[in-house]
Predict the 3D structure of the following.
Amino acid sequence: MDLSPIYFIAWVLPALVGSGVWVALRGSVRTAGDACSAIGFGWLIGVFLAAECARLAAKTNTAYAFATTWPWLAAIGVAAWIVAIVRIRRSPMTASAKEPRPHIALRVVWWLLLLWIVVRLLTVGEEASLRPVFPWDAWSAWSTKPKTWFILGHYEPYVSMLDWLSHPKDALRTAASWSYPETLAWVQLWFASAAQYWNEPLVDVVWCGALAAFALAAYGCWRAIGLGAWIAIALVYGLVSLPLIDAHVALAGYADLWVAVTLGLATLAFSRWLILGERGQWALAIALALLLPAIKLEGLVWLLAFGAVVIVDAVRRRRRSRAVLVAGGVLAAVALVAAIGALTFSWNQIEVPSVGTFAFSWHGVGGAMLASLFTLPNWHLLWYLVPVLLVARRQRLRGDRAARLIGLMLLIDFGFLFGLFFLTTASAWAQDFTSANRLILQLVPSVFVLAAVLLRPVAASAADRDTAIPSVAPRVPA
């Protein structure tokens, strides 16, 4: 396979641009944890910025979306780095506490886990790069639009089946997923146009990049909030080793992984705000959460839960202006989704275009859900360990503000899934072990964020503290 150098630039440029945005919000990069967070957050931020730039600038020239868009993206990166450098120079230099050198056994564990993570990512990335898009929803729902636009050379909207049938003489296009959000389509167009031809394996491997970027961001964030190096990398290992997440990378094309990492990044940034008091991370968390409905329809639900928790925190801290800002953003997102007809509610059902109508009634799918979580090889031991951790750290869960708020968000999210699977006809998703697991996957990175907050050492935790906790300088094992 001949790879154009431009294709590699399409990977590197978003990382440079997004890292500049992250550092500008952070105001400094002083530790190895900050460097990991800057790269991990930065790559995903940069990819989303590239997609939005392509949406705005390349609708009439989709086959050359990269060539049309990269100057705009680079300009954003230059501006971000100028702000970042100014903020770094103005920020006071403070000495960070140093951790004692870990025991040699822990350093060996750290390196072994890092090696396994790298090998695992290379393995699933290679799987994604060896096959076309998986011929199911990945193909019919998420690749149809970008491939069509790329081949046509310009953007064309998709319409409903009824509109398509009503205008037989017009050159209209339709699909079952005609109303799905299009952010991921523009992500695919960015990389396909950089490859200079529609090559599904080169597009698919981007899913591996998303998981790797989140792993870097998570490790850096968890080190910053006080976790030891071996605990932080063990959590990353646990996340990257989950079979269902690996399947979504190897069989790339579904949007669920992108929703998962975006919600996970928003939760990571929010945890930094709650623990370290970094205002830029608060703004980043809100921006990432607002992006969720633009990736997949159910992102609106996760946005509502996230927004509710942020409003609770802002009101408690008497930051009413922030509460109004968040509430306004959430309501705007809801209004936007409602305007395009994404959701229709009535007293006995909910209708989601291109997905279906779900009538309310009780459905006993407990056995299927228990099998999915505890006996089928989807999650390893994750759902055995999470209840143990919650019980063991129940005092921290009650007393620590960050743990309480992230736990509340996840409680709302899982409460929604319970209602969806047990109280509507979406119970069929639980019985066939497909969509139920995909929806749960979207919350799993945030579950790991909660686990990291609960596992922080006691010295690094302060219940309901309204001031920032100094970050602990990570010492990467030699």
Q: What stands out?
A: Strands lie at 97-98, 158-159, 173-174, 344-346, 349-352, 356-359, 472-473. The first strand starts at residue 97 and ends at 98. The radius of gyration is 22 Å.
